[in-house]
Every structure is written in C-alpha cells, then in structure tokens.
Write a structure and sequence with these properties.
258 residues, mainly alpha, 12 helices
C-alpha cells in the first residue's frame, strides 16, 4: 500500500497530527500509559487506520525507552525480573497477532475488553477494591498478558489491560510507571519488528512516524512534570480515570465495527 496517497497535502492535517501526539505524550507522561490509545483514536479520524497505526510506532518506542530506563538500568531490571512472565506472554502474542492485523475482525475483541476495563475502572473509582490473590497471580498474569498481547498486535494498544493488572496488584506510583515502561518498551520493540514485516511500517511511513518523535518528547516532558506533583492517591485516581476513558474508547471502536 502506498501510504503517501492518503497523507493530506494541507498543513491543517499535519498540525492536527502534531497536536494529537503532544496530547497523547502528555497523558503518558502524567499517568504512564494511554499514548497509543490517544494517538490511534485521534489520528484514525482523518487518516487510514494502518497509517495511524504506523505513525504511533516510533514515538511510542522512544518514549517507552525514557519511561523504562529513566530511573536507571538497575530499577528497570528489577521491574523486568518481577514481572517477567507477564512481559514474556505479552511479547509472544503481540508478535503473533500483528500478522493478523489485516484479516482478523477486531470489533468483538475491542467490545469485550472495553466493557471489562471500563467496569473495572469505575468499580475502583467508587472506592471498592479489586485485588489479585497471591495464589492466583501467575494465572492472572498469563491471562491478562495474553489479552494485552493480542489487542496490542492488532491495534498498537496494550496499555489498558496492563494498567488494570498493576492497579489490582496494588503497585505504587513509581513502580507502576516503571513496570509499564518496561512492558511497553519490550512490546514496542516487538511491535516495530512485527510491523516492519507486516508492511504497516515501510519506506513511506517510517519517516512520518519518526517525525512524530519531536512533539511526543515535548508532551512527555510536560506530563512527567505534572506527575511529579501528584501524590499516590491523586495518581491512582487519575490513572483509573484515564483507564475508564480508554475502556469507553475501546467499546466505541468495537461498536463502530459491528
């Protein structure tokens, strides 16, 4: 597919793409996730879905490097070791499902996942708690990791299931952000390679995706400054609020495709 055919010639579309990227990176900087969700939702309103997916790949990879390793290699390694099973299963299913992006219907997957995530976030925001019992942790990690990997390979979005799992596990603010960074960085590497193979990321789309790194960095820095001013309670509420929006957005995408 020649994506240059679909790229708008006017500066308005380019400005909109930059603004969406800045917003998406700000949300990621503040809460640790949702950048791909915001980008794919916004960009897909005026660009073909495969091009919107291509544009988010490189800035997602770069910002996840910063999120994962900003606290040092030692802390990133500790996070990776603690959640290695979850990371491994996410990577496997991203690689597998990315090859099905053009043939597998996504509507029912989005609808089911969005409903579950929205319900979880609203339940937590109401003051009720959902926790992962210690004896079920491995099973829950594998189940949630599988779902996150499948939807990640299909859409470039695997943050909501990860955040839901970390929230239910009771992870603190900095641990949550660091673990997310490691998970997303590893997943972004696999997603990049998978879509180089699938053709979504190619000679036409790679330069466009790389150009989105600049606005992404600006939004990320501002968002990280905002996160630094949050206490644990406010961070958790902000994270759950964004998670609820993410869930509603997935439901919207599922219904739109029926």
């Amino acid at each position: 597919m020649d994506f240059t055919t679909f790229w708008p010639a006017g500066p308005g579309a380019a400005a909109a793409a930059v603004a969406i990227t800045v917003l998406a990176a700000f949300v990621k900087g503040a809460t640790g996730f949702a950048m791909p969700m915001v980008m794919i939702s916004g960009l897909a309103t005026f660009l073909p879905g495969e091009l919107a997916l291509a544009l988010l790949i490189v800035p997602t990879l770069v910002t996840n490097v910063i999120q994962a390793f900003g606290g040092g290699l030692g802390r990133a390694r500790a996070a990776a070791l603690r959640y290695w099973r979850y990371i491994a299963i996410v990577l496997v299913f991203i690689a597998l499902s990315a090859q099905l992006v053009s043939v597998l219907p996504q509507s029912w997957l989005f609808l089911a996942l969005g409903t579950a995530i929205t319900g979880f976030a609203l339940w937590q925001l109401s003051g009720r708690q959902v926790t992962v019992p210690a004896h079920l942790r491995i099973r829950v990690e594998l189940a949630v990791g599988t779902v996150a990997g499948v939807i990640g390979g299909l859409s470039g979005v695997w943050g909501p299931p990860t955040v839901a799992y970390l929230s239910a596990s009771g992870a603190a603010k900095e641990e949550s952000v660091r673990v997310q960074g490691v998970v997303y960085f590893a997943g972004a590497c696999v997603l990049t390679l998978a879509h180089l193979r699938s053709g979504v990321l190619n000679a036409q789309t790679l330069p466009l995706s790389t150009a989105m790194v600049v606005p992404a960095m600006a939004g990320l820095v501002i968002g990280m400054q905002a996160r630094g001013r949050m206490d644990e309670v406010l961070f958790r509420r902000c994270t759950l609020a964004v998670l609820a929006v993410a869930g509603v957005n997935l439901v919207r995408r599922g219904l739109a495709g029926l």
